[in-house]
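Per reviewer request, we include the raw input and output of the structure prediction for the construct analysed in the revised manuscript.
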Amino acid sequence: MEVDLCFVMDCTSSMESHIEGAKNSIKKIVDYMANMKPAIIVRVGFCGYRDHCDGSNRLQIIEFTTSCDEFKNNVSNVSASGGGDDPEDVLGGLNAAVTSMAWRNPTRVLLHIADYPPHGRRFTDLSDTYPDGDPNGLTAEQVLREMRSAGIYYFFGKITKYTETMTRVFQSIIGEYPVFDFESTPDPEGLVEKFFDATCSAINTAITLRGE
């Protein structure tokens, strides 16, 4: 059985520890899946996003690979930086992951980890440079329905309360989906364990849903 797994992650300055947690959990996740019976072969990809003020650093895509070492080497070049106001380019990051990456396997999992919502009063009352929404014209409906059309299962890792409205809006568009709690993690090793548990759960849920 073969799975495409894409981490979509806010890579602004506040996310440093979570980026490290994702990096450190990848090999454990892929090794675990390979040792399952029957084995699950995982292609792992990454799409990092920041904000519109970050220019050429706004998006950072690492294409799918089955090589843990290759993936870890590539992700080692991802650092937490940038970000302007509180909301980030969430829709741009999700859209890039869905439309610009080479999804291939029949089971497709997207695990999104973020601490702040997209731009627009629909999602937040925090300080927002773009209160009318995404300046490139993306909408949640457009991005999430494209995701569904591509057969990609969406899962979310919650870090702060600021993404709760986003979750409600997203679920009103595509229905209920699992939300994993990454808040209040006491130490780096605990964060790796949370990433591992959430990722394994997301993959197994997607496999089960495809089999229904």
